[in-house]
Structures are given as structure tokens and as C-alpha cells.
Amino acid sequence: MKLLSRKSLTITAAIAVLGGLSIAAAPSQAASPAHRNTAAHSSTAAHGGLTDQDLAKLPLTDRHLTRHERENLAVVLRDYHVAEGNSLDVDTFVNSFAKDGVFNDMVPGVAYRGEALGNVLPYMANLFPDVHRELKRITVNGDVISIELSIQGTFEGPLQSPAGTVKPNGAKVDVPTADFWYLKDGKVEQFNCFVGYSTMYKQMGVDFDWASAVNKH
Fold this sequence. Notes:
Keywords: Signal. This is Nuclear transport factor 2 family protein. Residues 1-30 form the signal peptide. InterPro entries: Cyclase_SnoaL-like (IPR009959), NTF2-like_dom_sf (IPR032710). This protein has seven helices and twelve strands. It has one domain: Nuclear Transport Factor 2, Chain: A. Helices cover 24% and strands 36% of the residues. Residues 1-20 and 25-47 have low confidence and may be disordered. The protein is elongated and about 55 Å long. Strands 6-5-12-11-8-7 form a six-stranded mixed sheet. It has a two-stranded antiparallel sheet with strand order 1-2. Strands 3-4 form a two-stranded antiparallel ribbon. β7 (132-141) and β8 form a beta hairpin. The protein is an alpha+beta fold. The termini are far apart.
């Protein structure tokens, strides 16, 4: 899949100006002029802060989004922007969640709510100060947004493990990830994140000690 260079995605001043997101080219079926309704999707009209030009830069499986879906997508794109190493903004990320909103780090089975949401972004940023999320495929269905992406960065921060501290070695990571966002009234109620941690640790030079696990039994 051909990747575009990093571009800024203008939302609106009230929402955000997103920059530094690498995005993949959208599927050709979604981009086909035959599927466009020029009256409903004017190239100059903004719906929910995202113009058709903005949507054209995104790897959407379907660009025919309602105003409500565009507003939801703008919230999610803003959260990815403030999660970047060069534009980290923990407060904006936390404030995008509903009062009872939750971030679920699904692979280790850890949930973050309330003030604990402030720990989500620093974890990756501490490991990879240049952390970047490359969006590869985005599907918007009402209040649900599903995204295939990869988390990229350079291992420059210490990793705390049960066996002690793993020292950074400058290794590059490119970690397969799947994110599922559930919104209501413009707020994130639930964010389920599936990170390929086994791939990430391997790329960082961390090997699991299967022998010690076997010898315990």
C-alpha cells in the first residue's frame, strides 16, 4: 500500500489543526468519483470540521460520512495528533474522554479511567520519545471508529520489567496495532487498543525466556 508523506490535516480552529500524521492512500473503491454525490459532498464544504479534501488524505474504507461521523472522526484524529512525540498533549487526550470513559490496553488487560488516563500517552513516549502512529485503514460507522495502524519510534527510554530495567539501545520499532473507538456526544466512552507487544519487544531486543517458564512446572 502506497504511503503518503506526512501532511497537516486542517480540522477547524475549534477542534484542532492536526499535523505530523502519516497516512496511507485510501482504497480505490472509496475514492472512485462514481461513488461521489457532488451535491452532498461539495469539495469546499466542511462537515463536522473535516472537508472532502481532508477526507481524501485519509485511508478511509468509505468517505461518505455524515456530519456526525465527521465530528467523531475529528475527535479521534485529534487524539492521535496529541499522542505524537513531537506534539504530546496529555490534557487534551484526557479531556476527550467522557466522565466515565475508559482506555483498555487489551493485550495486557489493563484499564485506565479518570486521572489514570494521564498515564496512557507518557508510557509510550517515555520508551519512544519520537513515537508516531501511522494510520493505514480507517472505518467509520456512526459512533464507532476502527483503525489499523502501526506504532513507530526509537527505543531511547528505559523499559521497566519484572526482571529489572531494560536499557535503551536505539532500536527502531514498527508495531502492528488495532484501535477501536466508541464515542457518544462527541466524547470517547471506550477506547480498546490492541498493540502487538510481542513484536514490539522483539524489535527492542527483548527475548522471552521460555525455558524458565517451562522449568517452573
